Structure formats: structure tokens, C-alpha cells
Amino acid sequence: MLEKALSGSKRYWIWVTLLLAVIAVGLFAYMNQFNNGLGVTGMSRDVSWGLYIAQFTFLVGVAASAVMLVLPYYLHDFKKFGKMVILGEFLAIPAVIMCILFIFVDLGQPMRIMNVILHPSPRSVMFYDMIVLCGYLLINLVVGWTTLGAERKGAPSPKWVKPIIYLSIPWAVSIHTVTAFLYAGLPGRHLWLSAIMAARFLASAFAAGPAILILLCFIVKKVSKFDPDPGVGAIQSLVKIVRYAMIANVFFYILELFTAFYSNIPEYSAPLRYIFFGLDGHTSLVPIMWTATALAFLGIALLVFPTRKNGAALTVGLLSIITANWIDKGMILIVAGFVPNSFERVIEYAPTLNEILVTLGVYAIGALLITILYKVAISVREEKAS
Amino acid sequence: MYKGGKIFASLIIFAALFTIPFFYNMGKVNAGPDVALNTAAIQQLPASEQQCVESPEFMRANHMQLLNQWREEAVRNGQTVYVNSQGKEFEISLQDTCLKCHATESASKPAVLNNPVSTTAGVSNPALNESPEFCASCHDYSAVKPLCWSCHFEPKEATK
Amino acid sequence: MSINRRQFLRRAGMITALGLGSSFIISGFRKKEVAEAAGFAKAPKDLPAKRWAMVVDMSKFKTEADINGVIEACHKLHNVPKFPNTKDEIKWIWKDDYHHTFAGGHNEYLDDHVLHSPFMVLCNHCENPPCVKACPTQATFQRPDGIVAMDFHRCIGCRFCMGACPFGARSFNFRDPRPFIEGEISPDYPTRTPGVVEKCNFCYERLADGLMPACVEKSNGGLIFGDLDDPNSEVRKIVSTKFTIRRKPELGTQPSVYYLVGGGEDA
Q1: pLDDT tens digit sequence for C39-80
Q2: CB B100 within 8 A of CB B89
Q3: Which of A213, A179, A250 is nearest to A94 (CA)?
Q4: Contacts of residue A43 in chain C, CB cutoff 8 Å?
Q5: Which of A254, A277, B30, C141 is the most exposed place for a label (fewest CB within 10 A)?
Q6: Class assignment of domain A2-385?
Q7: Which residue of B has its CA nearest to C175?
Q8: Which sequence ranges are marked TM in the entry (chain A) (predicted)?
Q9: Considering the entire predicted model, what is its pTM?
Q10: How many Å lie between the alpha carbon of C77 and the closest alpha carbon of chain A?
Q11: Exposed, middle or buried, A34 (CB in 10 Å: 0-12/13-18/19+)?
Q12: CB under 8 Å to B142, separation ≥6 — which residues?
């Protein structure tokens, strides 16, 4: 089936070349980091994780969100999602691969990565994260490829995939739960030491992931003859999921704010004070966080009111929700977890250009993979339609 | 077989390209490394101590595995003494045991670093970074790059 | 030659697997010869203990010079580099003021002198170390004598341990440390490679030689080191009879570094 990605329109090739160029720049930046050490990033002794790990966290959510299509379609026989399920699975695969790449570029000694397997450490959450991420990648590859292959031949999917599909549902929840446990189990990092961390992660994932998927569907509809939602309202159903997930996410966040501020325990509120108001005169995250807050409410409003039926307003709403979630999870949550540091000092973090280029490179790899996988899926569908 | 001819032709071309270095070097004399096992440092030692921690044959074949074992035992298990197959005891130390005999003989390299301000970041100090000649002679020949010397080094005492 | 592509690929794969498998079996057998007749032992002078611990007697550190001498002794011995940019900083033992060392819940009426009096800080070698739990490769591990040690050979540089440590005791080699080691290189301890985490190791290399840690030796009695498990050790006597405090005891990590405040006598 992969050969379908090798023939395409001129626009397709321009897009692929563009992505390859960005990947090349990212690779170049990574070589600089590889040769000179992580000193070329903005990370420090105090803020020891930055943009990379934050992207990893955000993308685990995007990967897990495929379950929002798989679960209604396979478990509740929700036929409307029939044409979109494959797109969800084919979004999950690049998302997991980007997660693994972001972990990889974050390592100080990447050549030793196999030590994680050579010296397995069942007490470390990172160990389980590796298992669930690799497992999820495998599951989605197998399920996506087999179901699409069967569809191409006009046959029903083989029986043995069904249990794997069912397995993928709890597995998707597990990848984001385990990722939340990476942070939520650390003593002394008060922003992360929260029992609803995993719930927050899942809520924000089920808002941002399907939102990205809807936008991808809009693009698919524009650039190909394949319509993932031919008047059946699958997208409006997804919009409902995005809306409620985002409301839950904001609600969970407010719970965090209440506990931290009403209890008035200084350690618990310090990182939140830093995010929203600045601490000891350090305010670099304040405008960003308020932007995210405004976008979160704007997004919810646009999706609650009838504006959700309007193409342009819906796009704006979805973009607001994605951006709000990205700022919260793909940047602030990780960075502010380290602020103030163990000595109650505020040491700020800002990514360097090199770091940003590597990040863009990884995203470009992801975009290329999405392009290829979607091209395959769409070609198969177009072939069937004609 | 569909397009069998083309497949086999390309396979043969691939194999030929892949093996060019072997054919290119065939029949050419390439002198092996001359490993000095009888250096001045070793000759100065009393006869009873001239023997390495294990026999030269064993060391030639297994020194990497032995070093790995030493590393695990010393760093992780706090066992810093090695008892060899003859029952003789040695301190586990790359620097103080191995390099006592196998240090570079030629130039004495003072283990003094440059002023950090004038040294460019990200570049290791060359005075520290070189593999001792004894190790390098074989490893260069077989194009193996051990990473020991990015942390361990020959101290001044060993190189005099 | 009447095989189709599928069969061809299958056979090629089988031959490759056979080749790789047999080479693995052969090398697997060869590996067994290595351990032959060899044994390992502790160094004869190795100091035994069940749980090494340190008491910092703040009354003994009168001047800045007292403190800096101790820091210097440690950092020189272990080839700890000095980076011009604090972002890349590496510290094994350093000083911070009371206010920040014992962060949280301040008495606002404490006078400035107390708030800003300097304290020695280093890895606490916790009994329940969160860093050891976090490490995905067991590159950081707890020795039977309680020391939380680092295996620089194994560290992959993921920095999960730095996130897990509630005491900020860990440093990462963001850059090659070698050009930034000041003065002469100490022959007694290796330098580090870029991309690994490091921290205080309670001088286990000196304990194996029957010596006290470098900081303790240099401290003129300000740092007391011993086995907390031994009822007759000095650290145990101080900890059991005098008022000592530890950093963030509420987290349950059970730090092994105790601070004796208010002097030796009146507590």
C-alpha cells in the first residue's frame, strides 16, 4: 500500500519537499546539539526539562485521543465515525513516533538509549512509559494497516484484529495515565504532585487530539476527493467530544487552583502564582498563560453556541482550544514544575533557537509521516470510490 | 519470478559494491600493530610483578569483558579488589593498575588545563583526551574507539 | 526459478535470521569463558557501615573561608568544573542561606542574621531516594552502606532523577566539563563526559581506602561523618541526644545529612 505515497500531485510533492527541508534544518541543529551537548538548549541545572519533554507530554495526548473515535465506533457501533477511524489511528502513529523522538533528542547520552532495555528498572515510571508507548505504536500500526488493507480488498477485517482493537482502548488511556505518573509521583514538585494530574491529562488530550483531527479532516476534504464526513455529522459529534473534554479540562484546572489557593500552603501555590502573576519579579510566563486562559474560554464559547455549525468560527474555536492546550501542556506545565526550584528561587527558562529548530524538525518528521499515511488511506478510499 | 533478472542483477551489483574494500585490500600487506609488552615501565618492576592481571593470551582476547566486569564490581558492588586466576590480588583501577604499566612512554603530558576563559566550550582538552599509546596502537589499527578516555586519563605520575 | 516475490522475501528473511541467530549463539558461548577463576573482594582498608550519615555542625563554620575551603577541597578532588554561566553549573557541595536551605513556612520575625546565615548543602543520601526510584537504567543506585551512588558509565542523561530530587542536589553535564576544570587535574578521580548527571558520592572512593570524605577532613570538626546504625558512633550520639534538623523531612525521603543548629552544647 505504501506505493500510493509515491505518486501524487505537484502540490503534494511541494509539501513533501518543504517538510524534508525543515527536517534537514532540524537534523543540522540536532547534530550541533549532539556534538556540543545539551548546553546549546535553554535548559539548566534548575529547569532540567524544557521544550522537548513538554512536546512529548502534549503529543502523548494527541496519540491517546484516537480512542475517542475507536471507542464509539467499535464499542458502541457508532457508524458515523466509520470513515474517520482510520484517520485517528493514522494520527496516533506519527504522534507516538514524535513522542519517542522528543525523548531521544532530550537525552544527554542518546547512544546509550538501549540501557533502558539492557537494565530494566521496574521501579521507574519511565520504564513503563517506554513499554506502553512502544506497545501503542505497534497496536496502531497493526490495526490501521490491517483494517485499511482489508478495506482495499473489499473484505471485512480479519477476526484476529478485533481483540487488538479492543485492547487499544484501555491502552490509549494507559499511555497518558503513565505519562502523568511520570510527574505526579515526584515529591517536592508541587505543581505536579496532584492526584488529578492523569485526569487532567486525559481531558486535555481528548480536547486537543480530536480538535487536531477535525482540522486535518478539513484539510483532507480540501486537497482530495475523499470526504471523511459526507453529510453524516461525524465532525459535529467530534466537536461535542472536544467541547465536553475541554470543559472538563478547565474544570479540573480550577480544582487545582482552589486547592492551592484556598489551603494557602505557600509551596502549593508558588508555581501557580508564578504562572499567573509572576514570582519575585519574574513574569515571563504570565502573558502566555493569560493568553491560554482567554483562548480556552473563547474556544469553549465558540463550540457551545451555534457558532459551532459555522465553518470559520468552528475553525477558530478549534484552533483556540489546541493552542490553549499546547501552551498549558506543551510548555508551561513542564517548565513551571521546576519553578521555584528546591531552594525557592526563581530561575526562568526560555528555549534557544537551536532547541526550537530541533523541535520543528521533529514536528516536520511527524507531519511527513501524517502526510504519507493519510495519502495512503485517501488513495485507497479514492480507488474504492471510483 | 516477477522481474527476477533485474532483482538478481541489482543484488549482485549491491554485493559487489559492498565488498569493494575487501577486494581492494586483498593481497596488500598491512602491518599489524607493534604492541610493546616489554616497556621500560614494565622492566623496572620486580620480576614477580611483570605479569599482567591475567595471561597475555587471555587479556588479548577478553580485556574488554574483564574491564566491564571490573567496572561493574568496583562501581556498583564496591568490590575494588580483583583476585586473578592465580589467586593474586590487584586493585581495580584503570588508572593506577592498568596504566601503571601501559602508560604512554613517549611525551610527558602535564595534566594541567588551560584557562577556561580562553578555551572554547565544547572542545575537550587535548592534553587529557588522548588514548594511551598502548591502547591506541591496536584500537587505531582495528578502528575501534573506546570511550574510556573521555573521563579517565593518564595522570602526570604515570606519564613521567 | 519459479518462486514469487513473497516466497523470495520469506526465504531471504529466513537465511538472514539463521545467520544472525547462529552468530549470536556462537558469541554467546564465547562470553562464558571470561569469568573463569576470577574473584572480587573489598579493599582491605574499606570502611564498613550500614548507613553512612553526616552531621553539619553550623557553629564550627565561623567565616566564609571555613566554608569555601571545604567546598574547594571537594570540588578539586573530584574535578568539578567551574562554568562561567550558572545555567551549566555543577555543584557537589555548596552553600546557601538558612532561608533558602530550609525553604517553606518562614518565621517572618527571624532576624536577618539568622535568615542569611550560610548552610552547607550537598546530596542527602536519602534512605528512600526518589532519584533511585526514578532512574530508568539503575545508573543511580543505593549501595548497601546507604550511599546513593552514580554509575556514570550507564547514565543516559534523561534527567528524570533531577526532577525527582526534592533537594536540588543533582547537576547535569550540559557541556564538556574538561576545559572548565580550574588548575591542576586531580589524579584521584576521573572527569565526566558530557550528558551525564553527577552529584556528591560521600567520597566512597576514599572510604574504600579507609579515609574520611574530603569535606569532613577539611572541616575542622564542622562535619561529622559516621555510621548512623552504630550506637557508639559520634553521628548517632549527636543525632539521638541533640536537636538536629533535616531538609524537607515531611517528604519521607529520610535524608542522611543532619544539621546541628544552635551549637554543640546548648541544644
Answers
A1: 888 888 889 899 999 999 988 888 888 899 999 999 999 999
A2: no
A3: A213
A4: 87, 174
A5: B30
A6: mainly alpha
A7: B122
A8: 12-31, 51-74, 86-105, 125-143, 164-186, 192-220, 241-265, 285-305, 312-336, 356-377
A9: 0.89
A10: 21
A11: middle
A12: none
